[in-house]
Design goal:
By secondary structure, the protein is of the alpha/beta class. It is about 55% helix and about 10% strand.
Length: about 625
């Protein structure tokens, strides 16, 4: 503040007033100068707002007294005032020293995690095996693995959390995850190791379905002709008795017609939101989008070809399990999907992180809060080469293959039985008493944490945290289903196993979710939530990096230690947004990272003032 008072005076081109004039004006404002003693008293009482108000009045009096002059008497007075100001600043900062700011964009990597503590034993072995043989970070596998289980389970299970009518129900175990890795990080190899058994099942099952369709093609043609003829006979019947007989025979003929099952090709590696909706309609409301090359899909969802912003309607419904109604005028297609379930597991380049975090509508629609994010440390340059590369654990891979085949066979069988009869096309999973008590305790603790931290949390962070318990519930359901696959042996995947004795996954609803399963899921989600919030901060950090660099450079050149939104609007170039709201958000982000702090309480008549961290004003900042 001293610089703001002195600098304009020293640089003034106005003629220097005579000593009598300066002394007269300073005498008039002597009371204002002496009032700085009161400023010290107020600052000592840590009433910053009152102190700043008193200081501003004194500074205004000095400006009026100076009136552009640079006389020696005036400078002496200003030196004395500067000393008082420095005392005020020292008092104001007591107990509120600066700490080191958070680096603008540094990926320290996810927090360490013990896979055996957050996964069932067989899944922990698989994650370690893929990470070791593909030579990727454990976290890259750990985040995507639940999405493969989610795709296999589809919409065949719901979770009745508290077991009360109208209570908490998770309609599907749908799971969304995105990892951000640099080119050459073996994203595709990681995804393939997890998804290949699922794609294999889909391909084999669809070939069997196609063969059945081809086999019944001629028979169906004959039955349709017979049914049409019987309906014509019914319409031409001369009496009611003959008409009823003909209609009954026509219905029997229609019943004998072979109706192919829903498509088994529900897992894809490339799609668009519109194509994904059609996929859901053909695959009994289930779909999995699992790929190590997810850039194009994510760009389309974020609005690459859509002027209206994020195109995420089908993804929002597919995560919540809410009825999705597809109606598009341009393709003249309308259909309704009652319980959609989508599994989304994408690996993309790191430059997509700020685009996802900053996309218009990604936060407000709730899409971003539904995603589990991860930015693993890169292993590029440290991988083993040549003939010394580790070999896969065939036992772990075989168990994973059998597990996915068992879960998907059971889920398809449940859906088929429900669609063809009176049974609902889903089974209900419930928690044991111990697991439910632990779940309630975790939910209450998280709610209290959100209440205590409400002043320091943004809307997006609160949305992510609020969904953590629901995500953990879904994860516990997936782990529970996996637990029943240990008995699954290799079976013919062309025809899904419907015999409960041969596929124990079909009996998973008869056993409640255990406390051990919930504990692993809760630990996994606690780590995942922290990693998601870290990625969101990194995404925001990269979006404000250029703004921060330009702002710090301007502050150093102008000799500024405090800034307001209006200051930036007046001097900004191409480095700052146009609207005050956007600038205020960026300043708030920098304050959250420790580069700025508020030094005033804005009212209807005063603007928020932000003080720079001393490091920001250094030449190397």
């Amino acid at each position: 503040m001293t610089e703001r008072l002195v600098t304009p005076l020293v640089q003034s081109d106005d003629p220097e007033p005579d000593a009598d004039t300066i002394n007269r004006r300073l005498a008039v404002d002597a009371e204002e100068v002496r009032s700085l003693d009161d400023v010290r008293v107020v600052a000592a009482a840590k009433s910053e707002r009152e102190a700043r108000s008193a200081l501003a009045e004194s500074a205004e009096g000095l400006r009026e007294a100076a009136d552009g002059g640079t006389g020696a008497e005036l400078l002496d007075a200003l030196d004395g005032t500067g000393a008082e100001i420095e005392r005020f600043r020292t008092l104001r900062r007591s107990g509120q020293e600066w700490s080191d700011p958070v680096p603008l964009l540094v990926n320290e990597g996810p927090a360490s995690v013990k896979v055996e503590a957050v996964l069932p034993f067989d899944l922990a072995s698989l994650v370690e095996d893929i990470a070791r043989t593909v030579q990727v970070p454990l976290e890259a596998v750990l985040v995507l693995l639940p999405t493969a289980l989610s795709a296999a389970s589809g919409n065949a299970w719901i979770v009745d959390v508290d077991g009360t009518p109208g209570g908490w129900i998770e309609k599907t175990p749908a799971r969304y995850a995105v990892t951000f890795e640099r080119p050459g990080s073996r994203k595709s190899a990681t995804s393939d190791a997890l998804v290949e058994p699922l794609l294999e099942w889909c391909a084999e099952a669809q070939r069997a379905t196609d063969a059945e369709v081809a086999e019944n093609k001629r028979r169906n043609a004959a039955l349709r002709k017979r049914a049409e003829r019987l309906w014509m006979e019914a319409a031409e019947a001369s009496d009611d008795e003959a008409r009823k007989v003909a209609e009954s025979r026509a219905r029997d003929a229609e019943t004998d017609i072979y109706h192919p099952p829903p498509s088994r090709l529900f897992t894809v590696t490339s799609t668009t939101p519109e194509a994904l909706a059609r996929k859901l309609s053909r695959c009994a409301g289930r779909a999995g989008v699992l790929t190590g090359e997810g850039r194009e899909i994510l760009e389309i969802v974020l609005g690459k070809y859509n002027d209206r912003g994020v195109n995420a309607g089908v993804l929002l419904s597919g995560h919540a399990g809410e009825t999705y109604v597809h109606e598009r005028a341009h393709d003249n297609i309308e259909f309704s999907i009652p319980r959609p379930a989508i599994a989304l597991g994408l690996a993309v380049q790191t430059d997509m992180l700020p685009r996802l975090v900053g996309a218009s509508g990604a936060e407000s629609s709730g899409l971003l809060a539904r995603m589990n994010l991860c930015w693993p440390r890169s292993r590029v340059g440290t991988r083993i080469r040549g003939t010394t590369r580790p070999l896969p654990n065939t036992t772990a891979r075989g168990r994973w293959r059998n597990a996915l085949h068992g879960i998907v066979s059971a889920s398809v069988a449940i859906g088929a039985s429900g669609f063809s009869g009176d049974e609902k096309p889903w089974r209900v999973l419930r928690f044991s008493g111990e697991a439910l008590a632990a779940l309630d305790a975790a939910s209450d603790a998280l709610e209290c944490t959100m209440a205590d931290g409400r002043e320091n949390s943004g809307d997006l962070e609160r949305m992510v945290v609020s969904k953590a318990i629901g995500e953990a519930i879904r994860l516990s359901a997936l782990f529970h289903l996996f637990g029943f696959t240990a008995q699954v042996v290799a079976t013919e995947v062309a025809e899904p196993v419907t015999d409960a004795d041969r596929n124990p996954v079909l009996r998973a609803h008869e056993t409640p979710i255990s406390l051990a399963t919930w504990t692993r899921a809760a630990r996994h989600q606690a780590w995942q939530m922290a990693e998601t919030l870290r990625c969101i901060r990194l995404g925001r950090r990269s979006s404000v990096q250029s703004f921060a660099e330009a702002l710090f450079r301007w502050a150093r050149n102008a000799g500024r230690t405090v800034v307001t939104v209006r200051d930036i609007q007046q001097v900004r170039g191409a480095w700052a947004p146009e609207t005050a709201k956007e600038i205020d958000v960026l300043l708030g982000d920098l304050a959250g990272m420790g580069w700025l702090r508020s030094v005033s309480v804005p009212t209807s008549k005063t603007a928020a003032r932000w003080e720079f961290h001393p490091i920001a004003l250094e030449a190397t900042a």
